[in-house]
Here is the input.
Amino acid sequence: MAALLRAVLDAKRLATLQARAALRGYEVHAITGDRGEPMLVATRAAATHHLDSLDALERWLANLASEEDSNV
Here is the structure.
């Protein structure tokens, strides 16, 4: 039961982070890498960012937001 709850919470967290990325013009996809490891890919136009965890995605989005805020 705990594994199912964790999977649901991770799915919700991913959906939330995907929405935050979309507000900045990025699409985020959860994929399986060449070696079978899960990975996240954020894309916008020709820019592609590979991230290895939801925590890494969250940090990247926070950095992106702070960079955009400092350019205003």
In short: The helical segments are 2-23, 54-70.
